[in-house]
Design goal:
The complex is a heterotrimer. Chain A is mainly α. Chain A has helices at residues 5-31, 55-63, 116-120, 146-150, 175-179, 185-189, 200-213, 255-345; strands spanning 41-46, 92-98, 101-107, 126-128, 134-136, 157-158, 168-169, 195-199, 233-236. In chain A, 47% of the residues lie in helices and 11% in strands. The longest helix of chain A has 91 residues, at 255-345. By secondary structure, chain B is mainly alpha-helical. Helix content of chain B is 38%, strand content 7%. A two-stranded parallel ribbon of chain B has the order 1-6. In chain B, helix 13 (349-355) packs antiparallel against helix 18. Chain C is mainly alpha-helical. In chain C, helix 5 (82-92) runs antiparallel to helix 12 (185-205), helix 12 packs across helix 13 and helix 13 (223-250) packs across helix 16. Chain C is globular, with a radius of gyration of 21 Å. Classes of the chains: A mainly alpha, B mainly alpha, C mainly alpha. Chains in contact: A-B, A-C, B-C. The interface between A and C is large, with 63 and 57 residues.
């Protein structure tokens, strides 16, 4: 036997490897799906626990060194009016009254797993960090504000009043603090642990456990688990989310999926459109050429016909002239003869 | 060439016109929305019967019944104006005894209403609308404040008095063979055992039958007795009017040969399967529970029978598989003992402070079984009196430690950087809780062991004189080894504030517990830090 | 003919007077209005760049895109589509009879895109970075449709500039350079069509990311197709429309060829526009069906949608067909105006009116007068530059020296 055992095994191994690689490819492509960075962090906001003390707002203001508001954070009358995020507030707490009892909802960037802002930014100013935070790099931002159009949660705000270096403003999940091993400012300051910080997977487990334990206290839904492809910020509520102004009609598709179709068509247009257009041009050109050729041919025929006719006429005329000439000559001859005769006679 | 062009041109204008027409129409409709707030009425009837035939073409009609009754009585007209009689009794529907068909019913309304309104209008009297859209209003003028008629035990007792215990005046049974109603003494039950929400075959719905029975009787008795008996909608269905109905005090018991004390015989052999349990029997104070509930139907939901007749150990077909164990212990229903008790202590503000946070799904402690399943003392035979004896053996008061054993104050210094430390009035709170319990037998029975009361806050701790404190388990927040457990600050706030909220104690603001730091103390603290 | 041509030097000096040159009259009322617009616009420009966006616009955090995106960018780009449609028709599809219309169309497109870019400089927060072509150098956000739009607009502006260069080169008499530029025509045309297809459609696709904000009747996965198809109709109508306008104002500048070819061109374009609008109508209907949005038609927004669809798509489609059949130039011009209004309406609907429709009325965006004034200022500048060029350079007529050269 010329094939040694070792060789044989080697071949088998190679075949197996090739097979497994092939298989991996076959499985890899169609099911490739991004489900968030592994072990990324998030925050669970249990709305039933929030008491509206605004400690989170104050902490956010302090750790991010934002301008102090006109009224102190202890002033609860602020809660009577619905507020939106502004360029000087990364987070706000809103009160809504449901069946007579107040419900407080903290709003800030939800830190999507696949953020709309990041997918639409044409200078990549937004980035989803592996730790879960969606951060913004002001040093490249052109200020087109497409991120604000795209964000389904209406989170990013803009410094419209700044004439020279306006920036997009939004919650950072305290990414700089996370790097130092600190908690986000709001979470750290929350007295009721309405906000809890941890790995997103753990938070989901906690949320599910709470729903299971107190089915009558919670709506059986974790907001942010699937919304817009999932967010790092998760919510539990005792009333339907839409009653407290959270949109439930956003769908579970991540934002990039909304534009991927349109993006995929672009290279096809670039590749095929010139071919089509050149083809059209070629056809038009050919059409013109054929038309031109036919024209010349027709002219040639016409010219030839005319020429032939002319030649014929000429030939006939020539012949006629020749005959006439001969006749004249004959007549002259005859006259000469006659004259000679006459001369001779005379 | 030009002519067809102009035709076409006109054709093109059509869609434009349609758009204009369409938009003005819709805008007009949209503007209608700016009306005043609808008036709440107890006598509101929505006429939309025709929807049982096919979807309504026009908006349903709002009909204020009492307004019509009053208007007719002013003109000395009676119920006959609008209602037909069957066996000498007025029938609730308008000018008919049966819904014969869509067209017919519609015509009855249109003819009846418009004729009367029109006639009055001709005479120049104030009357209702005759134009289509004024009755068939998209924008509703009224909302219904109708309450279901609560024929409570007080009212029942008053009827019993007036009718001199002639139960047959109202109560009857149906004989399948003779197809007649008859009265069966001692078998009286709730109307709703037969008269359901919807009319079924020859059994009229509760709504129709009650209106026929009550109102006709009232009208006739009124003529005889000259009493002002309720006949108008608002007299039964209006909340404020109902307040004025006289209540008997005390309310006499219903008399239907029911027992005062019962033994729920769990230990007795199940007749069908021959099975037997070793659970101790439960003495049950039937009389007391009659007082807690307004109707027998709360427990005797289908028929006035003993529970175990249907709810056998194995769960008979009749009980739809609900076994005796489930029937007594199922948590998410008001028909079972445990279910009903759980609602009591979650809804009663005195109990809710501790019990609201107890998950419904939590397992009951083994100890709690014996509170109901009282073992027969040795040598005691099961007699008619046993239930009474066992019930009396239960404790009179919740058990507690002595005042000296309960710490008076607890000082919490968790947020002392920002606020003054909190002085928690520990003893005062416990005394108040114990005091609240005194009024409730249920509470007394279940807090009979010392330390049970403590476990409202000292949950998961052993029942001892000095149970472990909060900081035994609750430490730093967000320990990723145990994410489910709140940190110490969170634990305080969650427990205190939930209790305050559910017990409706107003003090839930920051400053209600945390005193603002005085300038001196914060200065002192600063120096200390330096 | 030759005596009408100004020398370049003369043109330069005239440029200083610019807008005041209006044939024989020096100060017509129109001139005064123009002057006011320019004055106000200049002041507002200074205000915008010294006090910030907040000082001149009503933009909010929920409405980050306003008038300058909705009108200047969206409508500007759509209405400048005449450039690629006309050059494609003439050079690629072999419709030589439209040759004389190419130059005006290219010029309009070039100026239109230039206006778009200038408007963008007003709108973005950091125009300095846009000027430096920052995104294409520093960080490329290739997942963004805006990146694609930006890249295409930039390239297309270059293409249009190159396509436009023969005009000033002829005027300046640079024969060699002009001949090179002309030789590029075919390549540039193909490139122009490709780039236009991409960014016209991508402008619509920009809104694909916001299904939760745009009214479902306007939102569709086919938004890109809608924008592309409607841009063709817009381009065709704009050529007819501005031809009619130019005819009134600049008749004396128009060459024999242009005048001769103009009327058949109108009929041809009307036919094409009718066909395209029909296609557009059909894809819009497909859009409603695909989104299953028929039930939304009997709502106020639905009515508004129907006004757009029936009044400004179906109606002009029909009128165009009739106009070209009956050789009714007036009707065609009317239809062209209707189409142009319809496209503007569509772009404003998508970017402003039906955008954020879920918000209460007091949170909605209404442009400030300053934003509108600056948009008017842009358009005015565009018209003035257009006038400046066509009154001096061989746009509507052929330069006598280069008459023989065109293919």
């Amino acid at each position: 036997m010329s094939i040694s055992r070792r060789n044989f095994l080697g071949w088998m191994g190679a075949a197996g490897l090739a097979g497994s690689l092939g298989a991996e490819h076959a499985h890899g492509a169609p099911t490739r799906e991004f489900t968030g960075h592994p072990d990324s962090y998030g925050v669970l906001h249990d709305i039933t626990r929030c008491v509206g003390c605004r400690s989170c707002e104050e902490a956010c203001n302090t750790v991010n060194e934002l301008p102090k508001p006109a009224t102190p954070y202890t002033d609860e009358s602020v809660l009577n009016k619905k507020r939106k995020l502004t360029a000087t507030e990364y987070t706000i707490v809103n009160k809504s009254v449901q069946k007579g009892s107040p419900i407080f909802l903290k709003t800030q960037c939800n830190h999507c797993l696949e953020p709309a802002c990041a997918s639409v930014c044409f200078v990549n100013a937004f980035q989803k960090l592996p730790n879960g935070a969606v951060v913004y790099d002001a040093s490249v931002c052109v200020g087109c504000r497409y991120c604000m159009v795209a964000c389904p949660f209406e989170v990013p705000t803009y410094e419209y009043e700044d004439p020279y270096t306006p920036e997009v403003v939004k919650c950072t999940l305290c990414a700089p603090r996370l790097e130092k091993g600190l908690l986000p400012g709001c979470v750290e300051s929350c007295p009721t642990e309405s906000l809890i910080f941890g790995k997103r997977d753990d938070l989901l487990k906690i949320a599910r456990a709470r729903i299971e334990k107190y089915p009558e206290r919670y709506v059986d839904h974790i907001y942010g688990e699937h919304e817009m492809g999932g967010t790092s910020w998760l919510y539990l509520s005792g009333v339907p989310f839409k009653n407290i102004g959270m949109r439930e009609d956003l769908g579970n598709k991540p934002a990039p999926a909304l534009t991927s179709g349109a993006l995929h068509v672009i290279p096809m247009v670039v590749a095929l459109w010139p071919v089509f257009l050149a083809g059209m041009f070629g056809m038009a050109k050919r059409r013109d050429k054929i038309a031109a050729e036919e024209k010349t041919k027709a002219i040639a025929i016409a010219v030839e016909r005319t020429e032939n006719k002319a030649a014929e006429t000429l030939a006939r005329a020539m012949e006629k002239a020749k005959k006439e000439k001969e006749n004249i000559l004959k007549r002259v001859e005859r006259a000469k003869e006659k004259a000679a005769k006459n001369k001779g006679d005379t | 060439m030009k002519k067809p062009g102009y035709l076409l041109c006109r054709a093109g204008i059509i869609p434009l016109c349609m758009v204009v027409f369409y938009s003005t129409n819709i805008m007009a409709k949209a503007q209608d929305g700016t009306g005043t707030a609808p008036e709440a009425r107890a006598d509101l009837i929505i006429i939309d019967n025709m929807k049982s035939y096919r979807p309504l073409e026009k908006a349903s009609v709002e009909f204020p019944h009492d307004a019509h009754t009053d208007a007719l009585s002013k003109k000395n007209k009676s119920c006959e104006t609008c209602h037909l009689t069957e066996k000498d009794q007025f029938y609730p529907a308008f000018k008919r005894l049966k819904n014969t068909g869509r067209e017919e019913v519609m015509n009855i309304y249109h003819d009846g209403c418009i004729a009367c309104h029109g006639e009055m209008r001709l005479k120049g009297e104030k009357t209702g609308p005759v134009e289509c859209d004024n009755c068939h209003r998209e924008q509703k003028k009224f909302t219904s404040s109708r309450l279901a008629m609560g024929f409570d035990k007080s009212l029942h007792a008053r009827h019993v008095q007036v009718h001199e215990k002639k139960c047959e005046t109202c109560h009857h049974e149906y004989d399948e063979k003779t197809k007649k109603l008859f009265y069966a003494k001692g078998k009286e039950g709730s109307c709703r055992y037969c008269h359901k929400e919807q009319t079924q075959e020859n059994v009229k719905s509760m709504r129709v039958s009650s209106h026929i029975a009550c109102i006709n009787c009232h009208i006739k008795s009124q003529e005889k007795s000259k009493l002002n008996l309720p006949v108008k909608c608002s007299q039964c269905h209006d909340a404020s009017y109902r307040e004025t109905i006289k209540k008997l005090d005390p309310i006499p018991r219903l008399e239907r040969n029911q027992p005062n004390r019962v033994m729920i015989k769990t230990g007795v052999m199940d007749l069908d399967s021959g099975e037997k349990t070793r659970m101790s029997i439960v003495p049950f104070n039937h009389e007391a529970h009659e007082g807690y509930n307004n109707s027998c139907r709360v427990c005797h939901h289908q028929e006035m029978k003993r529970c175990s007749e249907c709810h056998t150990l194995g769960g008979s077909d009749e009980a739809k598989g609900v076994s005796l164990e489930l029937a007594m212990h199922k948590k998410d229903t008001n028909h079972s003992c445990v279910g009903c008790h759980a609602t009591q202590y979650k809804e009663n503000r005195n109990c809710a402070g501790c019990h609201q946070s107890t998950p419904t799904t939590a397992k009951m402690s083994n100890r709690s079984c014996e509170v109901c399943h009282i073992p027969l003392p040795k040598g005691v035979e099961l007699t008619d009196n046993t239930a009474q004896l066992l019930l009396e053996s239960r404790p009179e008061k919740p058990a507690t430690y002595t005042q000296e054993e309960i710490p008076e104050k607890i000082v919490i210094e968790k947020l002392s950087k920002k606020y003054e430390s909190v002085e928690f009035p520990h003893r005062k709170i416990i005394n108040k809780i114990i005091e609240n319990m005194g009024a409730s037998k249920l509470a007394r029975y279940f807090h009979a062991e010392k330390g049970t009361t403590c476990s409202g806050c000292h949950h998961n701790a052993p029942l001892t004189k000095q149970p472990s404190g909060c900081n035994s388990c609750h430490t730093q927040a967000f320990n990723d080894k145990d994410m489910h457990k709140p940190g110490i600050v969170g634990a305080y706030h969650l427990l205190c504030m939930e209790c305050h909220t559910t017990m409706k104690i107003d003090k839930v603001g920051c400053k209600d517990c945390h005193k603002e730091k005085s300038p001196q103390s914060s200065a002192l603290q600063k120096r200390g830090e330096e | 003919m030759a005596e009408q041509k100004d020398s370049p030097a003369q043109g330069m000096t005239d440029a200083a007077l610019g807008f005041m040159r209006d044939d024989n009259q020096k100060f017509s009322p129109l001139t005064i209005v123009t002057g006011i617009i320019l004055l106000v616009g200049t002041i507002l420009t200074i205000l915008r760049f010294t006090q910030g966006l907040g000082a001149v616009t009503n933009l909010t955090d929920t409405h980050p895109w306003g008038m300058w995106i909705g009108f200047d960018l969206m409508c500007g780009v759509a209405l400048a589509a005449g450039g690629y449609t006309t050059s494609a028709a003439c050079y690629l599809f072999g419709m030589k009879k439209y040759h004389s219309a190419v130059r005006p169309a290219i010029l309009t497109a070039f100026l239109g895109y230039a206006m778009v870019v200038v408007s963008l400089l007003y709108d973005v927060g950091r125009p300095d970075r846009l000027i430096l072509a920052y995104p294409f150098v520093v960080q490329q956000g290739t997942t963004s449709l805006l990146f694609e739009v930006g890249l295409c607009v930039l390239l297309y502006l270059t293409v249009l500039f190159l396509e436009f260069t023969p005009i000033p080169l002829e005027w300046l008499g640079f024969r060699k350079a002009r001949n090179i530029a002309v030789k590029l025509t075919l390549t540039l045309t193909i490139l122009g069509v490709v780039l236009s297809t991409l960014h016209q459609s991508s402008l619509g696709a920009l809104f694909l990311i916001a299904p939760s904000k745009l009214h479902p009747l306007w939102y569709s996965p086919y938004l890109a197709v809608f924008f592309f198809v409607s841009s063709i109709a817009a381009g065709l109508s704009m050529v007819i429309f501005e031809g009619a306008l130019s005819h009134k104002a600049l008749h004396h500048r128009m060459g024999k060829a242009y005048l001769q070819e103009h009327t058949p061109l109108i009929f041809g374009y009307a036919k094409a526009a009718s066909l395209v609008l029909f296609g557009y109508f059909m894809v819009k209907v497909v859009g409603i069906t695909a989104g299953d949005n028929w039930h939304l038609l009997p709502t106020p927004y639905g009515v508004w949608f129907l006004v757009e669809l029936l009044g400004f798509v179906a109606l002009p489609c029909f009128l165009f067909a009739m106009g070209s059949r009956n050789k009714d130039v007036g009707l065609i011009k009317f239809s062209a105006v209707l189409t142009v209004i319809g496209i503007i309406l569509n772009r404003l609907n998508i970017s402003m009116i039906a955008f954020n429709w879920h918000l209460p009325l007091d949170e909605r965006y209404i442009p400030s007068w300053m934003e509108i004034a600056l948009s008017v200022y842009m358009v005015t500048c565009l018209i003035l530059v257009f006038r400046f060029i066509v009154t001096r350079m061989p746009v509507f007529d052929e330069h006598p020296d280069f008459k023989e050269h065109h293919e």
